[in-house]
Amino acid sequence: MSLDHSLAKKITRDALISLCLYALPVFALIFYYAFTGERPWENPVKDYAQVSAPAFLKFLEPVFRNLKSWGLIAIALGLGVLEFVAGLYDNKWTPTERKIDIVCFLVPKLLLPSITGFFSLKLLPLVLPDAANTFSWVPFWGGFFVIAVADDLTQYWYHRLHHQLPFLWRFHRTHHSAPYMGMAMNSRQNFIYTVFFSQIYLTATLVYLGLGYQALFVTVLKSLITLSAHSSIPWDKPFYKYRILHPVAWVLERLISTPATHHAHHADTADDGVGYYKGNFGNMFFLWDVIFKTGIITRQYPTSYGIKFYKEEEWYAQFLWPIFKSKKEGSELSANGPEVGDDPALIDETKLKPELATAKLTTA
Fold this sequence. Notes:
By secondary structure, this protein is mainly α. The chain contains 15 helices and no strands.
């Protein structure tokens, strides 16, 4: 399946805008030091970022370190138990789904540290031998925004391209196959998709260059936001229900991913005016979807999730495609399966309206 010309043009335009967004925190730092006349890079202080961090963050640092090491896993498991007890999976957690969710949750936590550790401890010193802690002089908030933008904007593109480039879709499909939403969706990914998470290596590189203290806070904050956005607990509903909170909701839903906006991304249809599997790609920041006009906000929740042509493929195929393929005939993950699953209704529409063909590239 070839890439639609208008979509290719939009991707190119948005990529150029992204280069400006990546550079924005850096230019802000340059402007700040040009204005103040300070030159901290000439006489760098050890742990300069920590010295320049607000007092309340220094106080919270042990909490964030514990959250990063084991706390986020505990929170995720706690949310999972709460969702299960509350019956929020609606009896859709079949043995196959259970295996996929558990394997995707556990295996990366066992294997990824070795992969990222090799990258950080062996490969980076080999490629950039004299660059360690080069930017340790960067103040806390400057480094925080550099990391936040670099990490999350890169993941936005990684995510978006896996929807919009047909040959990448099957690596991301597992994240959308479940007919439910919940804590487990946060880690439910094909392992190859996870290993090549581009922002992991970008963030590791920035840590190596001296921005590790800031990365601690960004990583934990982002993990909490993405976990809560995937959860089936609709914590954002009170912001929509009470008029006094509407201004807060307006800012919140445009700034970060909320359950309503991200659940829409996991819907199995757009027919209800709520589901929007063709957009809402933001992970921590929904702001990227606002800037690139790839998002919609309805303040409502979809009635169903997953993908219409889901064949409940074997757990090993969903976790390790293309190493292991599905035995389900016609599946995207089977040996001779389609690159992007066909929705008969959509095919009929695109015959009548060719401009709708782009929708097929963003199947889930």
